[in-house]
From TrEMBL:
Similarity section: Belongs to the LysR transcriptional regulatory family.
Segments forming domain HTH lysR-type: 1-58
Sorted UniProt keywords: DNA-binding, Transcription, Transcription regulation
Protein name: LysR family transcriptional regulator
InterPro entries xref list: LysR_HTH_N, LysR_subst-bd, WH-like_DNA-bd_sf, WH_DNA-bd_sf
Entry's Gene Ontology cellular component terms: protein-DNA complex
Protein's UniProt keywords contain Transmembrane helix: no
GO MF term (any one): DNA binding
Organism ancestry: Bacteria, Bacillati, Bacillota, Clostridia, Eubacteriales
Pfam families with a match to the protein in the record: HTH_1 (PF00126), LysR_substrate (PF03466)
Amino acid sequence: MNTVQLECFIEVSQTLNFSRAAQNLKMTQPAVSHQINSLEAELGTKLFNRTSKSVELTRDGIRFIGPANDALKILGTAKARISEKLETEVLPLGIVCRNIQMSTVLPPLLSAVAKELPACRPSVKISPFMPVYSVTENETADVIFSYKTEAPAQGRIVFRELMKCPICLICAENSELAQHDQITQAQLKGHSLALVSRQRSIDEIFRVTSAAAAQLHQNQIYLCETLDCALVLAEAGLCGCVAPRLGTQKDGGLKYIPITDAPPVSFGIYYSTLKANPVLKKFVEISCRELNPKR
C-alpha cells in the first residue's frame, strides 16, 4: 500500500468519477484504475461497484475512507518533519583543546564559524591527554588544538601551524623575577619550578625545564599533571612555571617573562585527511585566516 493508491481512492470516493478523479490528480484514467485495482487486490475486497454509467462505494469502501484519510495525514506529517529536519539539520564539529589557555583562541574562530557556517554546532572539550590519532578514530574529535609534540602518522594526520609561541617563565606579579621584562635560561637557576608532565613531549619546553631542574633541590620542584595546575601554584607565589604563551592569553595576576635564549614553540591544529568533512575543511580555513593571516 502506498500514498498514490490512497490518494486515488480518496479522490474517487469524493468524485465517484474515475475520469474527474484522474483530472484532479493529473493522472490518466487507466493509471487511476490501476491504482484502485492494486489497492483492492492488496486489501482483498472491492472498494467500488463500477458500471459504465456509475461508480458507487461498497460497504468496505465506506469503512476504508477514515483509515485512508488518517494514513495520508500521518504520512504527510512525517514527510513535513523530515523536510524540516533536512532544512534545519545541524553540522557537528568536535574541537579539542589541550588546556584552558588554548581555548582562548576559539572565540574569534567560533564567531566566524557562526557567520559563515550557521548550521555548524561546535562542541569544545578540554582534554590534556587525548592522542592526536583520535581525530581518525574518535567521532567526537575532528580537530585538536595543540603544541606540536609528535609527527603525524603515515600522512593520515596533518599538523597545521597557526602561530609561533615564545617560551616564558610564568610567575606571580610580586615574585622576585617579575621585575624583569625578559630573562635567560641561566637566570632560572635557584628559583622553584613547577614541572608539568604533559609538557615533556614538547621538546623545546623539556630542554629548558630539565636543564633548570637539574640545578634545583628536591624541595624546589613541584610536580604537576597539567599546566592549569601549575599556574595555580605560580599565581600563589610558590614557584614559577615554564610554558609557551599564546597571544590570546590574559595575564590574570601572572607575569609572563619571555626566555630569550629558548626557541619558540609551534602551535596549531591536528586533523585527519581521511575525513571528507566540508565543515572541518572550512574550520581549518577560518583558523588559518584568523590566527595566521600572513600564511
